Amino acid sequence: MKPIVQISLDLTDIDEALETAAMALRAGVDWLEAGTPLILAEGLHGVRKLREAFPGIPIVADLKTMDGGYLEAEMMAKAGATHVVVMARAHAETIKCVVQAGKDFGVEVMGDNLGCPDMVEGAKWLERLGCDYVVHHIGYDERRGIAAAGKRMPSPLDQLREVVNAVNIPVQAVGGLSLEQAIRCPEYGAPLVVLGAPLTIDADAFKTADGNLESSLRMICEKVHGYGEVEIKTASNRR
């Protein structure tokens, strides 16, 4: 699978999200993500607006589904999402419902292992239940709480190779990664690189001489796309 650059639109205003998405696509980003803050603020309306503005571009709806899986996936699919996210800590039946909705409405399912006591087993569990991708995720509150207790803040990179080696579907690493770390994810066998919109906007790294954000993002995309194909079974091959 060729490396993919996904920008997470973790914004709460649809106009700002549309503007950021347009800039990101000009720079070479492959997928758009309607981040959880955007979905909370704008809901289906926000996903519809993204689909209207960017026909043909994959859109990930980061629902973090825990229950009512079939209906949530169906609603987002009909609004224009191509990918939906379900949590590994949800009941197995919820994950199965999201997977079934994915088949029924032509969307792919990303299973998120955030909060799993064993992150590797959580990833394997998601694959067994039919998810098309694994999101290997260390949560925001988890990272901050551990750091506040004076302990080392965990990183998705800690177990990324183990997760990648445990499954035969593409893996995405999320949670507290710097831009430099995110860009290197294909080196770990994880081809789906996520850039958070606030992180990309605020980060000091990879700034061009004139500080132009679009040029900086284009440089990031070129670095990620410069990796060779990552040898994993894609979701379509698995099916």
Summary of the model, kept short:
The protein has helices at residues 14-27, 36-53, 69-79, 92-105, 119-128, 140-148, 160-166, 179-183, 197-202, 213-225, 235-238, and strands at residues 4-9, 31-34, 59-65, 83-87, 108-112, 133-137, 171-174, 192-196. It has an eight-stranded parallel beta sheet. It has 239 residues and is an alpha/beta fold.
Verbal overview:
There is one protein chain. Helix content is 46%, strand content 17%. The protein has an eight-stranded parallel beta sheet. α1 packs across α10 and α3 packs parallel to α4. It is globular and about 40 Å long.
Helix-strand string: EHEHEHEHEHEHHEHEHHH
| Helical content band | 40-55%
Strand content: 15-25%
Number of helices: 11
Strand order of the largest sheet: 7-6-5-4-3-2-1-8
Structure classification: alpha/beta
Q: Could you name the ranges where pLDDT drops below 50 across 5 or more consecutive residues?
A: 202-209, 234-239
The N- to C-terminal Cα distance equals: 15 Å
Keyphrases for this structure?
alpha/beta, eight-stranded parallel beta sheet, 17% strand, disordered C terminus
SSE blueprint and pairings:
Blueprint: E1 4-9, H1 14-27, E2 31-34, H2 36-53, E3 59-65, H3 69-79, E4 83-87, H4 92-105, E5 108-112, H5 119-128, E6 133-137, H6 140-148, H7 160-166, E7 171-174, H8 179-183, E8 192-196, H9 197-202, H10 213-225, H11 235-238
Parallel strand pairs: 1-2, 1-8, 2-3, 3-4, 4-5, 5-6, 6-7
